[in-house]
From TrEMBL:
PANTHER family in UniProt: MODULATOR OF FTSH PROTEASE HFLC (PTHR42911), PROHIBITIN FAMILY PROTEIN (PTHR42911:SF2)
Gene3D superfamilies: Band 7 domain
Entry annotated with the keyword Ligase: no
Taxonomic placement: Eukaryota, Sar, Stramenopiles, Ochrophyta, Bolidophyceae
This protein's record includes keyword Kinase: no
Name of the protein in question: Band 7 domain-containing protein
Listed InterPro entries: Band_7, Band_7/SPFH_dom_sf
Pfam families on file: Band_7
Residue span, Band domain: 35-220
Membrane-crossing residue ranges in chain numbering: 12-36
Keywords, ordered alphabetically: Membrane, Transmembrane, Transmembrane helix
């Protein structure tokens, strides 16, 4: 082969190589790569036109993009919402019987890939706080329908109700509730202290009331004793008075009967001896004086007139 032909071939090869390098350089300069991790989904976004491609949701991988373009990425894994004592985010709520409780709650939410564009329009990337507020509202709305005893003894029922309420709150948010777990349920310390103070106060009040009742009982017993003594004294006094009245009545009745018997006896003497009234009275008085042991006689005149009283010689 002549030398001129060999030189011509080399020149052509160099030109082709330069063309390839030029094409490759233009290609590299005109496009770039963007990586989406396995835990993400992406929406293609062109900042030059400020347009979001809603027709396709990109999965994980290394993708060619135009210069300056990139993906709006959203997590495809679970998004945790943690409310615990350790995180300092434990939630307070009320039960149906007005008991305040502190509840630890763990919620996992997953973004629906076909709703990523709607989330971008509504929140861009600031979706976490609004969703967290909705979860807290759902919890407080649920616990008010259960009493304190149910919160501790029917945890599975309460947890299912909380999950259902959270799902209703996040229904139009472009996500699904994967799981809900209720952790530790506690009564606030200040409430326990208040209860303790209240119990002690009630016990002290009960003690004072018991002491007062004892004093009242003792006073009532003393009153009853005094009343009984007074009643007994009245009864005794009345009995004595009644006895005196009975004795006086008996004496009066006896005296009346004696006098009646004496009158009847004198009447019989008058009838039997044919005494006059004056003679009968003289007999009566002489007999009375004789019973006294005095040697005295009574003289009675006519018309029952008293004449003289003289000692016997």
């Amino acid at each position: 082969m002549p030398a001129s032909d060999e030189e011509h071939g080399r020149t052509i090869c160099k030109v082709l190589m330069l063309c390839c390098l030029l094409v490759a350089s233009c290609t590299i300069l005109g496009v770039s790569f963007s990586v989406i991790t396995p835990t993400e989904v992406g929406l293609y976004y062109n900042p030059n036109t400020k347009r979001l491609n809603r027709n396709k949701v990109w999965g994980s991988g290394r993708h060619l993009v135009c210069p300056g373009c990139d993906f709006k990425r959203y997590p495809s894994s679970y998004i945790p919402f943690v409310y615990s004592h350790q995180e300092g985010t434990v939630m307070g709520c009320w039960t149906s019987d007005k008991q305040e409780l502190s509840i630890e709650l763990f919620v996992q939410v997953k973004i629906l890939p076909d709703k990523a564009a709607d989330i971008y329009d509504k929140y861009q990337y600031n979706y976490f706080d609004p969703w967290s507020q909705k979860i807290q509202m759902a919890l407080k709305q649920t616990t008010k329908d259960y009493n304190t005893e149910s919160m501790f003894e029917e945890r599975s029922v309460v947890t299912a109700a909380i999950k259902e309420e959270i799902e209703s709150y996040l229904e139009d948010e472009g996500c699904e509730v994967a799981s809900v777990h209720v952790g530790q349920i506690t009564i606030p310390t200040q409430f326990e202290d208040a209860i303790t103070t209240k119990v002690v106060t009630q016990q002290n009040a009960a003690t004072v009331l018991m002491q007062r009742n004892v004093t009242v009982i003792e006073a009532e017993t003393a009153i009853i004793d005094s009343q009984a003594d007074a009643d007994a004294a009245v009864i005794v006094g009345k009995a004595n008075a009644d006895a005196s009245v009975i004795r006086e009545r008996a004496n009066a009745e006896a005296l009346r009967k004696v006098q009646q018997a004496e009158a009847e006896g004198l009447k019989e003497i008058m009838d039997e001896l044919d005494f006059s009234v004056s003679q009968t009275l003289q007999f009566k008085f002489n007999r009375a004086i004789k019973m006294l042991g005095v040697e005295t006689t009574v003289g009675v005149g006519y018309d029952d007139q008293y004449l003289s009283v003289k000692d016997r010689a």
